[in-house]
Amino acid sequence: MTATRSAGIPQGRPFTVDDLEAMPDDGNRYELIDGMLVVSPAPGMRHQKIVAKVLVALDAVCSDRLHVFPAPFAVRTSTTTELQPDVLVARDEDLTEKLLPVAPLLAVEVLSPSSVINDLNNKKAAYERMGVASYWVVDPQAPSIAVFELSDGRYEQIAEVKGTDVLSVERPFPVRIVPTELLGTLAP
């Protein structure tokens, strides 16, 4: 049976990465989780400030064989799964010019009002299935960072720090981050 199209939306089949290529350049983020399309609006000021601060903190201590990228940079592990973590860390040898075709070492998601359920459930489960070794969730409102690490194929929360507490982790490399400092000069 051939899938039909209605207004560019696939009918009778899961979305694929080919369908993502046809999505409009309208400021939204388009991602796929097991063929399900996830559309997120453009992030706000606090979100972007935290992404920038996490990116700088990770990049400052990243080894020469690893790279830190902000979204949009695709993690495409199949024809029906393509995610764009807010920040990712990947091995040099795993990257292509356009995307990361394997699980990153670290995926970081910064919560937005529209992304909370997706980031804490769907994306977390997708990263777990991909084999992303470390997954961080940053909440700009608290501010806080929850750290999950893969153990026997399942995520275990190994840390949660809030406010002025210091997050100190070893994976994918040693780094220390203070949640309130991620807001820079923005009021908590």
TrEMBL record:
Domain Putative restriction endonuclease, chain residue ranges per copy: 18-174
Alphabetical UniProt keywords: Endonuclease, Hydrolase, Nuclease
Matching Pfam families: Uma2
Origin species: Actinophytocola algeriensis
Name of this protein: Uma2 family endonuclease
An example molecular function term from Gene Ontology annotations: endonuclease activity
Keyword NADP: no
Database matches in InterPro entries: Nuclease_put_TT1808 (IPR012296), Restrct_endonuc-II-like (IPR011335), Uma2 (IPR008538)
